[in-house]
Specification:
binds magnesium ion; single chain; 42% helix; six-stranded parallel beta sheet; 219 residues; binds 6-O-phosphono-alpha-D-glucopyranose
Length: 219
C-alpha cells in the first residue's frame, strides 16, 4: 500500500470542475473570447490568474488589460464560481470517494488534498469531507501552478511521507504532470487520451479502491 494518498479536489472528489468551466465560460463570453470543453481541458488544475492569462491569450487579449483590470476579471469569475458552489451538499461527493476515504483511514494511510483552488477548504466543508483529511494544502501558499509539483510536494511534506510512497489522484493533464514530476504514482480520472502520462487511468471515481491504489503502487 502507499503510505499517503493525495487527492485533487475539483473533478476528483466532486464535479466542481464543471462549475469552474461554466464560470470561466461566462467570463469568456463577456470578453468576447468564447471557448469549448476541449480548451477547458488546458485550464483544469491551473490556478486562477494563470487560467485568466490562458483565456486572454486565446483571444490575443493579454495586453488589452492592466494588472488591476486582470485582478478584477479574476475576482468576477470567482464570484460566479462561489455563487454556484453555495448549494453543494454531501450528496455531491462523487461515487466511491467516501468508501475510499474510510478504507484509507481504517488502514492508517495518510490522506491529503493538493488543490490549486483557494475555495478548496470551503468546498470540502460543504461536502463534509474535510474531517477525513490529515492535511489540506492552502492554495494561497503555493507559488507555482500545476504542472509544477509544488502543491503535491507540500502535501507530502505536511503528512510526513516521502513522495515515492505517495499516490496522487487527478482529473487534469497538468495535475498528472505535477504528480509525476513530484516523483509519485499517478492515478487519473477521465479520458485516457488526455491523461496518458498517468500510471493508471480510470473512467470514473467509482473504480477507485484500495485494490486499484495498491495495484499502481506495486508496479
Ligand atoms: C483548480 C481547478 C481550476 C481552478 C483552480 C483555481 O485547480 O481545477 O479549474 O481554476 O483550482 O481555483 P480558485 O477557486 O482558486 O479560483
Ligand atoms: Mg481537478
Amino acid at each position: 500500500y502507499p503510505q499517503a494518498v493525495i487527492f485533487d479536489l475539483d473533478g476528483v472528489i466532486t464535479d466542481s470542475a464543471e462549475h469552474h468551466f461554466l464560470a470561466w465560460q461566462q467570463l469568456g463570453q463577456e470578453l468576447s473570447i468564447p471557448f469549448d470543453r476541449q480548451f477547458n481541458e488546458t485550464l483544469k488544475g491551473v490556478n486562477r490568474m494563470d487560467s485568466l492569462e490562458r483565456i486572454l491569450s486565446l483571444g490575443q487579449a493579454n495586453d488589452r488589460y492592466s494588472e488591476t483590470e486582470k485582478t478584477a476579471l479574476a475576482e468576477k469569475k470567482n464570484r460566479y464560481y462561489v455563487e454556484s458552489i453555495q448549494h453543494l451538499t454531501p450528496q455531491d461527493v462523487l461515487p466511491g470517494i467516501i468508501d475510499l476515504l474510510k478504507d484509507l483511514r481504517q488502514n492508517k494511510i495518510k490522506i491529503a488534498m493538493a488543490s490549486a483552488s483557494k475555495n478548496a477548504q470551503f468546498v470540502s466543508e460543504r461536502l463534509e469531507v474535510d474531517h477525513y483529511f490529515d492535511h489540506i494544502v492552502d492554495a494561497a501558499t503555493v507559488e507555482k501552478s500545476k504542472p509544477h509539483p509544488e502543491v503535491f510536494l507540500k502535501a507530502a511534506t505536511a503528512v510526513g511521507v516521502a513522495p515515492t510512497d505517495c499516490v496522487g489522484i487527478e482529473d487534469a493533464a497538468a495535475g498528472v504532470e505535477a504528480i509525476k514530476s513530484a516523483g509519485m504514482r499517478a492515478i487519473a480520472i477521465g479520458d485516457a487520451d488526455i491523461l496518458n502520462a498517468a500510471d493508471l487511468v480510470l473512467t470514473d471515481t467509482s473504480k477507485l479502491s484500495l485494490t486499484t491504489l495498491s495495484g499502481v503502487f506495486s508496479k
